[in-house]
Design a protein that fits this description.
The chain has 10 helices and 3 strands; from the N terminus they run H-E-H-E-E-H-H-H-H-H-H-H-H. It has helices at 9-16, 29-35, 64-80, 85-90, 92-107, 131-146, 155-178, 189-195, 197-206, 213-236; strands at 19-25, 41-46, 51-57.
Length: 238
């Protein structure tokens, strides 16, 4: 694998284009514990003002792969959902998938999608974790979040959980394409229970590889197939 190029936050945002600003925040521990998830960086987009906001936790050192993950959200929004609120919502699944693809490629030291094969047991940038362990931990996070008694606790928790599922699909897609010794080792029972077997199998088979524009737009449909029934279920609890 080639060594990563070094970019500053501002130079990367300039390459992506569009209107943007950087905001700094502190992680709310109580909210993170309640959600079962915390993020050290977040990308938001205002469809009315056409402004991107990159939020960065000021008390944490943000790894390069997380920053590139968030840059990918900004780029995807510029390409596929510019000033369109419906597309911005429907893009949520694909952009989490794509950002996770980029994230793992950065961890592996790649500087393009034309990368060399790697071993499923090679170490990545998180401690002494292997790619296999990292992939399986992403899946386990989805299971843990869906297995909570209060799932979906609120709309934001629902969107975050489904986003983590697409993160898993993104990491898995890189492993399927480039890991020479990849094997699938996860139990999808909980996810199938929450989504339905038919819907899970549709998305599970579709979210593979690098997407072209037509595939990105098709992903809008599958993502909304997940969200609408679960939103209706959530509102039914009100």
């Amino acid at each position: 694998m080639k060594k990563n190029r070094v970019y500053t936050v501002n130079s990367l945002l300039a390459r992506i284009g569009g209107n943007y600003k950087i905001d700094f925040f502190e992680i709310n521990v109580e909210e993170s514990d309640a959600a079962g998830f915390a993020s050290a960086a977040q990308a938001y987009y205002n469809t009315k003002t056409d402004e991107h906001i990159l939020r960065i936790c000021k008390s944490s050192e943000i790894p390069r792969y997380i920053v590139f993950h968030e840059f990918t959200h900004i780029l995807d929004t510029e390409m596929y959902a510019k000033q369109d609120s419906w597309k911005y919502m429907a893009l949520s699944g694909y952009t989490e998938y794509h950002a996770a693809q980029v994230e793992l490629m950065i961890m592996l030291g790649a500087d393009s999608i034309q990368t060399q094969d790697f071993s499923f047991t090679v170490d990545v940038e998180i401690g002494n974790s292997t790619v296999r362990n990292y992939l399986n931990s992403r899946h386990q996070l989805v299971v843990n979040m869906m297995n909570r008694t209060d799932f979906p606790r609120d709309i934001e928790a629902l969107k975050t959980t489904v986003g983590v599922l697409y993160n898993y699909f993104g990491v898995r897609s890189i492993c399927k394409m480039y890991a020479k010794d990849y094997t699938e080792e996860v139990d999808n029972t909980i996810i199938i229970q929450k989504l339905s077997k038919v819907l899970f199998e549709e998305i599970n088979s579709f979210m593979v590889g690098w997407f072209n524009e037509a595939q990105v737009e098709l992903s809008f449909v599958s993502y909304m197939k997940i969200m609408w029934p679960m939103l209706q279920s959530y509102f039914g609890k009100e």
